[in-house]
Amino acid sequence: MKIENKNVLAIHDISCIGRCSLTVALPIISAFGVECRLLPTSLLSTHTGGFKNFTYLDLTNEMENILEAWKQLDLTFTAIYSGFMANPKQIDILKSTIKAYPSLSVVDPVMADNGELYGVFDQAFVEKMKEVVPVANILIPNITEACLLTDFPYQESINEDFIENLASALQNMGAKNIVITGISFEQSKIGAAVVDEDGNISYAMAEKQPSSYHGTGDIFGSVFTAELVNGKSIQDAAQAACEFVVSSIKATDPDADKKYGVNFEMALANRANK
User: Fold this and answer.
1) Domains present along the chain, CATH in parentheses
2) What pLDDT, on the 0 to 100 scale, is given for residue 2?
3) Which of 78, 170, 233, 245 is the most buried (most CB within 10 A)?
């Protein structure tokens, strides 16, 4: 019996402390039975949310060296999953990598949350990120990022009409399939809007938790991508990702410092023991 070698190329930063990016993607994608290959964009002592005086090493030059070395290998990727890009040049590298290795591409345009850009980015970066919208097979922004990409004013209170207009604007920019995360229309539920290429919208929802944590978007994206590679539909993969994020939060000590992320490791262990 031939065993299929499913793999994901994860293009993210390495934040050494804080449970996000590659320290989340590598273990989760692997635990879902998919090989995780890496192309690091930068190296940080911690993630940038809540930690002070963090160190930061831009790996743009090394990304180019790695990709050049890979040309000598007969590589294929089942999927490419991208997250934090350190600078506009890395967005060009991402686009060329997706072109060089045709496969399922899942792009998380990491740059903002809660109505605000992350401190390391500016409007010029937003404009550059817009170039990725028509390139990705599946775009997975949160609401803030979707608003920035479409020049929609951000609003905390949303309804289905707002999400439909946001999705339509993204598809007018060339987006194909879209998963907008952080959707909540009622106090007890939170999840994602799933938009197919024809503009049809459905929702993947799970039980809303009383606290929010850093890194849950990366957990969502990692589970979502792994489940797609494992053959699930976009809707089912989004539902699985929502439920796993909730399981990770429930496995986390409510008194723990939130900037250190959620206990996804225990959620993985609980999943394996079922």
Assistant:
1) 7-262 (3.40.1190.20)
2) 57
3) 245
